[in-house]
Amino acid sequence: MVDKERAARAIRELLAAVGENPDRPGLQETPERVARMYEELFAGLERDPLEDVKLFGEGLPDELVVVRDIPFYSMCEHHLLPFYGQAHIAYLPRDGRILGLSKLARIVDTLARKPQLQERLTTEIADAVERAATTRGVAVVVVAEHLCMTMRGIKKPGAKTVTSRSIGELKTDAALRAEAAALLKPYTR
Ligand SMILES: Nc1nc2c(ncn2[C@@H]2O[C@H](COP(=O)(O)OP(=O)(O)OP(=O)(O)O)[C@@H](O)[C@H]2O)c(=O)[nH]1
Ligand SMILES: [Zn+2]
């Protein structure tokens, strides 16, 4: 739970520290506003990524399911600047149990909304999908741009970071791994 009063006090202090006057008209409401914003951006800190997850036992064959181009916005934990892009998820159901498709995007949202690293986000998404569905395998690719690399520091706008995590049969079975890679590849540039 974000302590909004404490966050607002900190933002006020930060404004003073950078040489601003937190009492000038344009900034008077900023600390409370930013505190509310953090409550939204960090809502994933107190949410279970698997709440609401629904499984359907349709008795269908276990074939790969891919949900691609799931947009997300997260905050890099080193600079508290946004990194954002798309997550692509492939999973192989077990015993015909399939996940509600929107739940995959909900998992991404929850895990993105906290101070994060792209690599950890990628791994946490794969683990959550695996736990949600007890799948035979999961492969996740995340492609993102980090504002801490574009608007400051090394300043390389357009540089994209691609991270991946495979577990279960999508890691160990060469044929399945290749099939998942082929389905994900066109979308991960
Ligand atoms: N592996 C990884 N690194 C990240 C992520 N987000 C930001 N970083 C990096 O975290 C590093 C922090 O490096 P530091 O040297 O402590 O910070 P800095 O002096 O601001 O570094 P520069 O960005 O190079 O100016 C930088 O290289 C960032 O690019 C991420 O999601 N994953
Ligand atoms: Zn950063």
From TrEMBL:
Annotated catalysed reactions: GTP + H2O = 7,8-dihydroneopterin 3'-triphosphate + formate + H(+)
Top-rank lineage group of the source organism: Bacteria
InterPro entries attached to this UniProt entry: GTP-CH-I_C/QueF (IPR043133), GTP-CH-I_N (IPR043134), GTP_CycHdrlase_I (IPR001474), GTP_CycHdrlase_I_CS (IPR018234), GTP_CycHdrlase_I_dom (IPR020602)
Pathway, per record: Cofactor biosynthesis; 7,8-dihydroneopterin triphosphate biosynthesis; 7,8-dihydroneopterin triphosphate from GTP: step 1/1
Keywords: GTP-binding, Hydrolase, Metal-binding, Nucleotide-binding, One-carbon metabolism, Zinc
Entries under Pfam families matching the protein: GTP_cyclohydroI
Cellular component terms per the entry's GO annotation: cytoplasm
Gene Ontology biological-process annotations: one-carbon metabolic process; tetrahydrobiopterin biosynthetic process; tetrahydrofolate biosynthetic process
Residues the record lists as binding Zn(2+): C76, H79, C148
GO molecular function (one): GTP cyclohydrolase I activity
SUPFAM superfamilies per UniProt: Tetrahydrobiopterin biosynthesis enzymes-like (SSF55620)
Entry's EC annotation: 3.5.4.16
Annotated GTP cyclohydrolase I domain residues: 8-184
Keyword Cytoplasm: no
Alphabetical list of PANTHER family matching this protein: GTP CYCLOHYDROLASE 1 (PTHR11109:SF7), GTP CYCLOHYDROLASE I (PTHR11109)
Family, similarity comment: Belongs to the GTP cyclohydrolase I family.
SUBUNIT field: Homopolymer.
Official protein name in the record: GTP cyclohydrolase 1
Organism phylogeny: Bacteria, Bacillati, Bacillota, Clostridia, Eubacteriales
